[in-house]
Design goal:
Elements lengths: L1 E6 L2 E6 L6 H12 L4 E7 L2 E3 L15 E8 H9 L9 H18 L14 E5 L17 H13 L1 H10 L3 E6 L6 H8 L3 E7 L4 E4 L12 H13 L8 H24 L8 H5 L8 H13 L5 H17 L7 E2 L3 E2 L20 H20 L45 E6 L3
Parallel strand pairs: 1-5, 6-7, 7-9
Antiparallel strand pairs: 1-2, 3-4, 3-5, 8-9, 8-12, 10-11
Helix pairs in contact: 5-8, 7-8, 8-10, 8-11
């Protein structure tokens, strides 16, 4: 059969006996291209032909085009005898070093809380901003990226945050610092007269929060950063800023403050200090209800509505009873639970922390549905609380709060939302 040999762009015709061996083919190749002292590789339609086999057992057919590749024997021996450069890491050593770094980070990297995250429900990675991304050179008072990372570790290791993450079964892929200058979303919000404090991407895949002050001279107050983090964590379940979102935010804020108070009441110490001292929350826990409503009004940028006040009071009363605390109608600071019906669940009711995320969401939806009819009957301008009301009650107008969206871009909760979209929290906390 007649075949064509091709080597470095040169073609030669060759006549082979069908009953011959492939060794004859290799001899023809060496003779036609003067490759006597070369190692040969012969390919037919991408398949290699080896020496010493019958041609009938190869894919070689009449009229086939055979590609020839040749390498000097000396070159092959040099490559085989060469040793790897010890100054260059191999791919295997790179993978081993990365795995070792991850294990060390999980085992040894602790914040001033000296309290680790949950093994499953945690912030997986941390990413601070460097001065190159600020858009300006830092001043002598600008905190280093190492300090920003330590602050994010403190947020993640906060035992109250760890408790919330475990109970809600949330895992965040990346907790990153929001660029205070160059972030494109921040620039859009600044043009509208508002400050962007954080955003949540794809229901917890990434959470970016602002850590630094506007002049980059230091960090924002720890309680303010916690409020932003709780806001972004709420987006893990609810994308738009609707009534369900704000009810969940109030629950997280209340859970956070009461967890800190519980740790301090038990006498737990973290690095020799109490949880309230490290979290700078001693003033907030004096009146949890008022602190939550204040955070709600500051975050929502409008007075708290009667619906949210009622939902918060009900949540405080129910969770207080489920935790076995006194159910006398006062919560942490002798604040009366205005707007509650007084009916508490039975003592053997399951704890709210045992509910799954879906069950908790259904519970919130039922509560909202039940109060929807009642809230629609309220006048839009109800009379304010009387002067003879209970001491310490929250001074808010009983106004039905409209459902508004302060700059919310796209829903993130995965239900009817656009995949890969980003939700942006735009607050004006000064």
């Amino acid at each position: 059969m007649d075949v064509t040999l091709v080597y470095k762009g040169k073609s030669e015709s060759c006549l082979l006996n069908c009953n011959a061996s492939s060794t004859d083919l290799f001899d023809e190749v060496r003779a036609k291209f003067s490759l006597a002292d070369m190692n040969l590789k012969v390919l037919v339609k991408g398949k290699q032909i080896v020496e010493g086999v019958p041609l009938l057992e190869t894919p070689l057919k009449a009229g086939a085009k055979i590609m020839v590749m040749a390498t000097g024997k000396r070159d092959v021996s040099e490559v085989q005898s060469a040793r790897s450069d010890p100054t260059i890491r191999s791919f295997a050593s790179e993978d081993a070093a990365a795995q070792h770094h991850v294990q060390q980070q999980r085992a040894d990297e602790l914040s001033e809380w000296a309290h680790p995250q949950d093994a499953t429900y945690r912030f997986c990675r941390f990413e601070p901003c460097t001065w190159q991304s600020f858009g300006t050179r830092p001043q002598s008072s600008t905190p280093h990226a190492f300090e920003a990372r330590n602050l994010m570790l403190k947020l993640a290791h906060d035992p109250a945050i760890v408790k919330i993450m475990r109970e809600r079964q949330w895992t965040v892929g990346l907790l990153a610092e929001l660029d205070p200058v160059d972030d494109r979303l921040a620039e859009k919000m600044e043009s509208g007269g508002k400050r962007l404090l954080g955003y949540n991407t794809n229901a917890g895949a990434q959470i970016h929060i602002r850590l630094r002050t506007e002049d980059l001279s230091g960090f924002l107050a720890y309680p303010a950063i916690i409020d932003t983090l709780l806001h972004e964590l709420t987006h893990n379940e609810f994308g738009p800023h609707d009534e369900q979102f704000w009810a969940c935010f109030c629950q997280l804020k209340a859970d956070y403050l009461r967890a800190l108070l519980s740790f301090s009441s038990r006498g737990d110490l973290f690095g020799g200090r109490s949880a309230l001292q490290l979290a700078h929350a001693a003033e907030e826990v004096r009146d949890v209800r008022m602190s939550v409503l204040t955070a709600l009004e500051r975050d929502r940028q409008m007075p708290a509505g009667q619906l949210q006040i009622g939902l918060l009071d009900r949540y405080l009363a129910t969770s207080t009873a489920l935790e076995g605390q006194p159910g006398s109608g006062t919560v942490l600071g002798s604040v009366p639970l205005a707007g509650t019906s007084g009916a508490l669940p039975p003592a053997n009711a399951p704890a709210s922390s045992a509910l799954s995320a879906s069950e908790r969401r259904e519970q919130q939806l039922r509560a909202l549905s039940a109060r929807g009819a009642a809230s629609s009957a309220l006048s839009t301008e109800a009379a304010p609380a009387s002067a003879g009301g209970p001491a310490g009650s929250h001074p808010v107008a009983l106004k039905v709060a409209p459902i508004v969206d302060h700059g919310n871009r796209t829903a993130l909760n995965g239900e009817g939302s656009e995949e890969g979209a980003m939700d942006v929290t735009d607050d004006d906390r000064s």
